[in-house]
Write a structure and sequence with these properties.
The structure holds two protein chains of two kinds. Chain A has helices spanning 2-30, 39-43, 48-56, 60-79, 82-86, 93-120, 128-161. By secondary structure, chain A is an all-alpha fold. Chain A has one domain. Chain B is mainly α. Helices cover 74% and strands 0% of the residues of chain B. Chain B contains one helix and no strands. The chains are: A mainly alpha, B mainly alpha. The A-B interface holds A 28-29, 32-34, 88-91, 93-94, 97, 139-140, 143-144, 146-151, 154-155, 158, 165-167 and B 3, 5-9, 11-12, 14-16, 18-19, 22-23, 26-27, 29-31.
Chain lengths: 167, 31
């Protein structure tokens, strides 16, 4: 049963992680260079840029971040590795670093990106200038997660295949 | 103000640099 649960958690971790981080990479590929939103983009909610923002917005990837994180922590816990990963002990140090990065990324989604995105989209009332300001923050927050996903994936891989890191 | 995150190349370059720094730290501290 433990092996079945481990496989199920690992599967959920990969699947949800791809949905979550894939959302970030889709954004990077489609719009590699930052182009500021303008007041005109936001005043008319039928403008192409506003519509593009709306089309990209959905809760699926935010909740995928929770599933990814939860499945990862449960996996570590089920193996009895959680305390060692948190303490970055010995061979658990690489996956521990991955866990810390993943935790930062999830917190970034929920406590930096999403509150500002709600203003940009008009889900929370805000003036146009404030919405334009928030759009810069959501961009930087999103790209922070794209950037962090690079070491995150390295340390996920290193958890199983990174013996060289430990000398 | 321009930021490395304003281009895909800058974002990925920062990610690779951070990976290298963290890998070196893990090797020194936990190896």
């Amino acid at each position: 049963m433990d092996a079945t649960l481990d496989l199920a958690l690992r599967w959920a971790h990969f699947l949800a992680g791809i949905i979550w981080v894939g959302h970030n990479y889709s954004n990077v590929v489609q719009r590699p260079t930052w182009r500021p939103l303008t007041a005109a983009d936001l005043i008319d909610d039928r403008s192409p840029r506003f519509q593009a923002l709306l089309n990209r917005e959905h809760g699926f990837f935010r909740w995928a971040s929770v599933v990814t994180w939860g499945a990862g922590v449960l996996m570590l816990s089920q193996h009895g590795w959680l305390a060692g990963a948190v303490a970055l002990q010995g061979s658990l140090a690489p996956i521990g670093v991955g866990m810390y990065i993943g935790t930062l990324m999830m917190l970034n989604v929920w406590f930096v990106l999403w509150p500002h995105q709600k203003k940009v989209l008009g889900l929370v009332p805000a003036g146009i200038e404030e919405r334009v300001r928030c759009s810069r923050i959501t961009h930087l927050s999103s790209r922070t997660n794209t950037m962090l996903s690079i070491p995150l994936l390295f340390f996920m891989a290193a958890g199983s295949h990174g013996g060289f890191l430990l000398g | 103000m321009r930021h490395p995150y304003d281009t895909a190349t800058g974002t990925i370059a920062l990610g690779i640099a951070l990976t290298a720094v963290l890998a070196a730290l893990v090797r020194v501290l936990a190896g």
